[in-house]
Each structure stands twice: as C-alpha cells, then as structure tokens.
Amino acid sequence: MKELLALLENYIILREKNRELYYSIKDNYENFNDFLTEKLGYNLIFHEDFVKLEKIPGKPEGWMGIEGFTDVKEYIFFMLLLMYLEDKNKEEQFVLSFVTEYISNQYPAEKVDWTKYSSRKSLVKVIKLALNLGIMKNNDGDEDEFSSNENADVLYESTGISRYIVRVFSKDIMECENVEDLMKLNWEGIEQDKGIVRRNRVYRRLLLSPVVYNQGIEDSDYEYIKRFRSSLQGNFENNLGWDLHVHKNGALIVLSDDNKVGDLFPSMKGESEAVLLFAKLIREKLEEGKLSLNLNDEIVLSIEDFNKLLLEVREKKGSGFKKELRDSKNEYFIEVLLNYMKEFLMLEKRGDSIVLLPVLGKVIGDYPKDYLANDN
Q1: pLDDT tens-digit profile of 123-137?
Q2: Which of 126, 198, 260, 293 is deepest in the core (most CB within 10 A)?
Q3: CA geometry: angle at 353 spanning 338 and 278, to 5°?
C-alpha cells in the first residue's frame, strides 16, 4: 500500500534520491498492478534511474496544473526547456545562458525580454521545478541570482530523464483544437470498449477529483458509481485503505488519516480552517430558513450575498485566522477563499451567481467553546 501511495504522491521517483522506495516498488508492484492497469488504465514506467506512474485525469479540472505556475509563459518555458534537454546526453553539462538563448530563439510569437524581472522570475520557477523533478542537476552557481541579475550564469548537468517527462501520443497534438480533443488521446491504445473506457474514467475521477457530482439523468459516470458501488469501494479500500461515500448528488473518496496524499480538505492550512467555519455558517443559515437548497442540493447566491457571508465569517471568527487572512483587505480575503473553494469543487460561478455545491456541507468545523481568541 505504501508503494502505491508513493506513486500517487510523487510525479517521479528517482533511484538516486530514494533507492529503498525505488526497489520496494519494483519488488511489490504486482500487488497493485491490476488496480493500476485494469481499473485506472494507467501506465507504470520502470527505468534504471526512476519509476513513474502516468497519472491521467478522467476529467480535466480547473485546479489541475503545475503547482506554483501562475502564467502561461511558465508552461511555455518548461516545454522549451524540455526541448532543449532532449538533445543532451546523460551527464552532459550546459550553462543557463545557453538555455535563455534557446528559449529566446524558440519562443512563439514574441521575443523574450530577459531584462524584465518577471521573465527571469518565471524561468527560475521552471528551473527549480526541473531540478526538483531530477531532469537536471545544479553543478555550480545559484539560479536565484538570475532573478536579480540577467548576466548571472549557472552550470547545469542533464540527467537524461527529461525525455520521459512528456507523454508520447500516436497523433500530433497540434491537430487538437480544444481540451476535448486532447482528452480523447488519453484513451488511445485502450481497447475501444465503451465499458472499459467508462470504468477507467470513473476510477480516475474518483481518484483525482475532490468529488464526482451527479450531472443528471444522462450522467453515465454517476450511474456506474451507483451500480458498481460495492466493487469500487472494495478496490479503493483494498489497495489504498480509502472509503467511498455516495450521496444523492455526489460521490467522493474519503482518505484515512494514515493514507493521505496530495492537497486535501480539511487540512492544517488557514484557508481550510476558514472554509470549515464558512460551511458551519451556511448550515446555520439553512436551519434558520435564511438560505434554501434547490433540487440539486445547491445554494444559489448573488455575488454580493456570497461576499457578505464570507465577511460575516471573518467578523465573527476571524480572530483565530492566520495573519494573512485575518488582516488582509476584504477583496483579497474573498478572492483567496473563493479560489480555494473552487479548486475543491465546493462552488462554481454561473453567470452573475455563486453556486454553493453539495460537498461544501460534507464537513463543518468550529473552535472549542473555551477558545479564548474567539471573542464572539
């Protein structure tokens, strides 16, 4: 179980950095290989230097992306860095100025201005990701210096792993016109049986998404969950120690305390604490009749009313918030919690309304009654 959890938690596991775990996975992967290949349809890649599980979503979500990347430019820089490294042999050295020159020559549509701090900062983010993934090593110098000095140089070394980072498709992705076309490529190589495709998609959605909502009578994924609930529960419990909760309008995996991976809710983050308190306030408003549920167990609010409720939480309970949330301007506080709840599929924006989704009511929280910091 620990080996499978490690594969889910890490993008790639390097033998050089974690030799014991690397060999443990090689020795024990047959214990969970059926779950990976038959249920999830995932590919487990073994290499002399690493092991990698290709984790493909069943449905693309807005929160999916590289943590820390905030601009499209950073994704472009990363892809260009991978292109640059593709021709480099293992242990071949190069300097940062070669990379910046290559990116400048290959960057689409415009010329990269390395005199701008924002461009240098974005590249440093990309370099640090590459170092963390193990696709290159720092032999001499500090890439942080490049943030403040465009002439700073650093000596790097290729590990030869970069060519295994991007998935290989049988078709040219330039032929894809939208996200849906890209997602179709995920099923290439799988026997074209709608039942197998749906099974893999449902398992992937339950594994990677905070919740799978019932989208209505035409929702085959949710019907699959209800029909094969027992089998789904057994597979997640036996392989990961996780529990499946199925409700009228949504299904989600609940992780045990011993087997947690990824960014979870609830957590020790200050945003999580604030949302638990917000959820309790919403439940109180429902019980008082001040809010109501629609047929899908959703609460539809105007943006103004939603903002007022968030600020009401901070007014009543904010003394216990972390400093950033406690002392920030209203606009920043609202934006942070809005985005946090959106990532966990607790709400969505529809036109001029904010819709609170059912999973928001799954867990609530409050301070202990004797909590001195809460003066309300």
Answers
A1: 999 999 999 999 999
A2: 126
A3: 40
Q: What is the pTM of this model?
A: 0.86
Give DSSP secondary structure letters for 220-244: HHHHHHHHTHHHHHHHHHHHH--EE
Q: Distance (Å, rounded) from C-alpha 283 to C-alpha 287?
A: 6
Mean pLDDT lowest for which of 125-134, 182-191, 352-361? 182-191
- Find residue 46's DSSP bridge partners: 51
CA angle, 245 then 290 then 287, to 5°: 45
Asked if residue 89 lies in contact with residue 98, where contact means CB atoms within 8 angstroms, the answer is: no
- Residues 6 or more apart in contact with residue 369 via CB below 8 angstroms: none
Please tell me the distance from the alpha carbon of residue 100 to that of residue 112, in angstroms, as a whole number. Answer: 9
Q: Is 251 helix (H, G, I), strand (E, B) or coil?
A: strand
CA 92 to chain centre: 32
